[in-house]
Specification:
Elements lengths: L2 E9 L8 E12 L5 E2 L5 H8 L7 E4 L9 H16 L4 H16 L5 H6 L2 E5 L2 E4 L7 E7 L5 H6 L7 H20 L5 H4 L6 H6 L2 H12 L4 E4 L6 E5 L5 H11 L7 E6 L7 E2 L21
Antiparallel strand pairs: 1-2, 1-11, 2-4, 2-5, 3-4, 5-6, 7-9, 7-10, 8-9
């Protein structure tokens, strides 16, 4: 009996559209041991499991919200594919490599697949993952509203071409963001996470996410960006940010009718898809059936 855990992720980090992603410490668990919810034959989990050579039934457990721009589909597919390859006798490294290629194909882009499989902050170059070997220069929060978005629908709404001016703008921000991460310098993050390729268009159709970004930055956050296609918003706090300031920022993110959501305190998951100990939500004392989304 085997269980594989894979992390959620926040893609793009602002300007890094389809090329940057960071794994976050909210997870899915896919197993062949009957714990969690059994996946039917039409489920995306079962599909990835079968495509990777898996046999038998699989079960899903999660403390990662679905449909919120936190890489839920990439995480569950990654866990399922790794489980299948381990079942077929692959070692861990081979299982993860095969899983990454399959999940990238199924997702259509690798910015969620790379952190889900390999963990950490990942740069994708021609569908090849490159770990930056760093975390984030500050504490990471995620504002998660009740809204649900479709990644495919959100991508279809983006214009097919961009101006040279906007392309150059984003190139400069990705370069600055890479420097900020490698230098562990939160003072560069606000400017480095600016974007003109996808966030303005997506935020125009999702006022709560736009307001959440504005509230975070107005209350001292080092950076805030639309997580993947949204509607969740990732927020980086400077390390020196005190508890009183943090509480004030969280209150600002959760007040008002247009900011109805919760704030999750998360870490960067550096492990990626791994064989899991018994840490599933359904096996925790006092956890609810869906896995408690603990946070602020």
């Amino acid at each position: 009996m085997t269980c594989v855990r894979a992390p959620g992720s926040s893609a793009n980090l602002g300007p890094g559209f389809d090329v940057l992603g960071v794994a976050v410490s909210r997870h899915v668990w896919v197993s062949d041991d009957g714990v969690g919810t059994r996946c039917d034959d039409k489920d995306a989990v079962t599909d990835a499991f079968r495509r990777a050579g898996g046999e038998g039934s699989v079960w899903l457990d999660a403390d990662l919200p679905a449909g919120r721009g936190l890489g839920f589909s990439a995480a569950m597919r990654s866990a399922a594919a790794v489980l299948a390859r381990l079942q077929q006798g692959d070692d861990s490294a081979t299982a993860r490599e095969v899983a990454f290629r399959l999940v990238t194909q199924l997702e259509g882009h690798a910015d969620n697949a790379a952190p889900a499989v390999f963990g950490g902050v990942q740069l994708v170059v021609d569908d090849d993952p490159i770990s930056l070997g760093v975390g984030l220069p500050g504490r990471l929060l995620v504002w998660v509203p009740e809204l649900i978005t479709s990644t495919d629908g959100s991508r279809r709404a983006l214009p097919p071409t961009v101006s040279r001016h906007d392309a150059v703008f984003n190139l400069s921000r990705v370069a600055l963001l890479t420097m900020a991460l490698l230098r562990d310098d939160s003072s560069l993050l606000r400017r480095a996470t600016e974007d003109r390729l996808h966030q303005p268009q997506r935020l125009a159709d999702c006022a709560p996410s736009r307001l959440a970004i504005e509230a975070a930055l107005d209350n001292g956050a080092a950076a805030a960006w639309l997580s993947g296609s949204g509607p969740s918003v990732a927020v980086v706090l400077p390390r020196e940010f005190g508890e009183t300031a943090t509480a004030g920022l969280v209150e600002a993110l959760c007040s008002g009718p247009d900011l109805d959501g919760r704030v999750l305190a998360v870490d960067v998951d550096r492990l990626g898809a791994v064989v899991s100990p018994d840490d599933r939500p359904s096996m925790r004392v006092g956890a609810n059936a869906s896995g408690a989304l603990l946070g602020y």
